[in-house]
User: Which sequence fits this backbone?
């Protein structure tokens, strides 16, 4: 049963998620950003808890650089782990690996960046609700905050199939560029969708703006 039939029958739409955590984080001093902690809880674990709290149970985490260190810190999480053998090929390659590993009965997919510190279960639930309420014929929902694109994004099974049917360079961004009329730019005032941390300056700015202090685990701290 496809997503449209499921909605017509009043049945729940099964949502899966891909968390992208394969980057080298060169601007962060070559340390895995997803292991930054808030009150001792890593960003990766916070994202998984947010998904679980919003009812998303089928989660794929795509690792690359620092795969062993990341997995070691979170091996208890109930997720499917994948390692991108060529993470420097770009985010598209990690997304494609994640989509290939999706459960075949998943009707829609959330794609999350592992370095977003503020995303919580309510943010995920709100995005899922926006996806269900999206106008026809749109197939992908992207939050827009103050005119700027945010994350996560969410799209239906047909979009995942189209991405995978494309060339190796085809990812979510390229699909959106090719299908602008099928993208619902969901306007939100929630700054959580725009917050990520790419550099030490971003960590400082987040602390000044929110009072939240990101810290590295002990073995990744530097003088």
Assistant:
């Amino acid at each position: 049963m496809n997503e449209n039939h499921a909605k017509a029958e009043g049945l729940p739409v099964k949502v899966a998620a891909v968390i992208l955590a394969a980057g080298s984080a060169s601007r962060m001093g070559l340390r895995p950003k997803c292991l930054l902690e808030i009150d001792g809880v890593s960003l990766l674990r916070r994202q998984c808890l947010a998904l679980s709290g919003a009812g998303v149970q089928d989660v794929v985490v795509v690792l690359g650089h620092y795969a062993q260190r990341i997995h070691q810190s979170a091996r208890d999480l109930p997720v499917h782990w994948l390692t991108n053998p060529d993470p420097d090929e770009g985010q598209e390659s990690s997304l494609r690996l994640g989509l290939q590993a999706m459960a075949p009965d998943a009707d829609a997919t959330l794609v999350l960046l592992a370095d977003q510190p503020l995303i919580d279960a309510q943010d995920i639930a709100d995005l899922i609700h926006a996806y269900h309420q999206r106008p026809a014929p749109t197939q992908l929902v992207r939050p827009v905050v103050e005119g700027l694109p945010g994350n996560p994004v969410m799209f239906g099974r047909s979009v995942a199939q189209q991405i995978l049917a494309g060339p190796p360079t085809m990812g979510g961004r390229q699909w959106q560029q090719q299908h602008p009329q099928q993208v619902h730019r969901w306007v939100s005032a929630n700054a959580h969708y725009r917050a990520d941390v790419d550099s030490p300056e971003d960590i400082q700015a987040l602390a000044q703006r929110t009072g939240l202090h990101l810290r590295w685990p002990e073995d990744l701290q530097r003088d």
Q: What stands out?
A: Residues 4-10 have pLDDT under 50 and may be disordered. The beta strands are 15-21, 37-38, 41-42, 58-63, 80-83, 108-113, 140-145, 148-149, 153-156, 183-187. Residues 42 and 190 are 22 Å apart (CA to CA).
